Amino acid sequence: MSSSARLLHSVRTPLEAVGLRTTALFEEAGRFFFILYQTGYWLLRRPFDGRQWLRQMVRVGVDSIPVVGLTALFTGMVMALQTYRGFERFHAEAYVGSVVSLSLTRELAPVLAALMIAGRIGSSLAAELGSMRVTEQIDALYAMATEPIHYLIVPRVAATTLMLPPLVACADGLGILGGYGVAVGLMGANPVVYWEKTFQYLDLNDVFSGLIKAAAFGLILSVTGCAKGFFTSGGAEGVGRSTTAAVVMASLVILISDFFLTKLLF
Amino acid sequence: MNPSPTPAPSPAAPPKIAVVDLWKSFSGKPVLKGLTVEISSGESLVIVGGSGAGKSVFLKHLIGLIRPDRGRVIVDGQDLTSADAAVGLELRKKFGMSFQEGALFDSLDVFENIAFPLRRHTRMTAAEIADRVRECLELVHLPGVERKSPSELSGGMRRRVGLARAIAMKPEILLFDEPNTGLDPITSAVIDNVIVEMREHLPVTMVTITHDMKSAFRIADRVAMLREGVLIATAPPDEFRRIPDPYIQKFIAGEPLEEEVA
User: What was the pLDDT predicted at A1?
Assistant: First the structure.
């Protein structure tokens, strides 16, 4: 290879890699918005499959209570433990309740619940739809004059978006109780003062904004999971790839969009 | 080549399906290259060809699962390729498709799989649906498996349940994607008999793709050979057997081509 050809090759290879990555990124974004748009388009069209909606709501909401509840409980406990120790240094222990309640409702409960649901539901959506794709079950739906996005994706996205806020509300409550238990039971805080301070600076707006965030995260993670599954190719290996990618991508998008949502809402 | 790859349309009876100059490429590799064919109402057309010839891609175009790069698929005078979502869904109600491995929904049992299109598209009562499911299972010689899940069925049974689901809505057009692939000769013959019997019971147009010549000759009114994205011959089974094309003769006999041997 001549030196000029070598130079050309050394410049072209990284440029090609950048080009391929950029194209892949646009492809992913295109698939996400395609599924989002199609879900909106089919959302209120008939036939309305109430049974599917209910089944998915139980799967996303009721079945996720233990994992989200435990996450929130222990997060509240550890928050109380850490802030109590820290605030002790400048005699501000009385404000532990405020810090725990505000950080849980505004930030921790929605984000942690969404990340847990991304792991639990986002992955299973990708795996379920991906295996349906590779075994031609999605083609079979088309062939039976049934729009797969209407039948499969709309109930899943709607259920996840609708169930995240109540799950986060549970998480808020359990996290605050966990914080109370540790501060009062373990660290010796005054229960009356702790309880009063918990709600003194807590605004309804804090809670509602957290719940709005939760719904947005539910939409993001379910659309990501469904898009990864729906466009799966490459057999069992492809299903595995989609499942992993769904969790990684949904988690990243949740964390990134959290910043912008927080800026927008608070 | 004799006979003509594209039969002339009869002015008296418009074709049930007309495929006009169909082109499709994947990642720059052409799979269908200007495929044209007409299928009459009530006819059973079997498309044969080797692996990678474009048979499955062709079949998926017929029902709108794949959009062509160029060309049209016309069903009962309506262009499926340019139809919007609502018209496309209505046109697809005319079809029933049986997939290679059955493509049964894992989450539903056999009864619910067959009842699925009936529940979605008809106002039949529960009793009428149950009767229809039983009738379809009898047509494919599988009575009494209603409550089994797809994972409990053998490969041949799954395909027959797939057939039963495809005919549940009494479609005007039935598509079969390699109904015999991977099955033993006896099960394969059972599937062929089911298809032939179905034709006797239902006034349907059938398009089957396969590379099993025995099966093709059993179920076809017309056999078409697809090679490298082009239909190289179309003829009734008896004429097809006599076409003096070396590729077709070797394909029928199951012998390797000279260039592949070399």
Answer: 59
Q: Can you give the residue range of the structural domain that contains A224?
A: 27-265
Phi-psi region of B45 (alpha: psi -120 to 50; beta: other; left: phi over 0): beta
**Number of structural domains, chain A?**
1
Number of domains into which chain B is organized: 2
Q: What is the mean pLDDT of residues A48-70?
A: 92
Is A136 an 8 Å CB contact of chain B?
A: yes
Q: Does the CB of A143 have a partner CB in chain B at under 8 Å? A: yes
| A138-152, A201-215, B158-172, B190-204: least confident range | B190-204
Smallest Cα–Cα separation from B215: which of B172, B183, B257?
B183
* Model ipTM value: 0.85
By the 8 A CB rule, do A110 and A210 touch? Answer: yes
Closest Cα of chain B to A145: distance in Å? 5
Q: Residue B1: pLDDT above 60?
A: no
Nearest CA-CA distance, residue A136 and chain B, Å: 5
B116 vs A131, A132, A144: nearest CB: A144
Query: Both B18 and B131 in a single domain?
Result: no
The verdict on residue B2 lying in a domain is no
Domain range for B145: 96-170
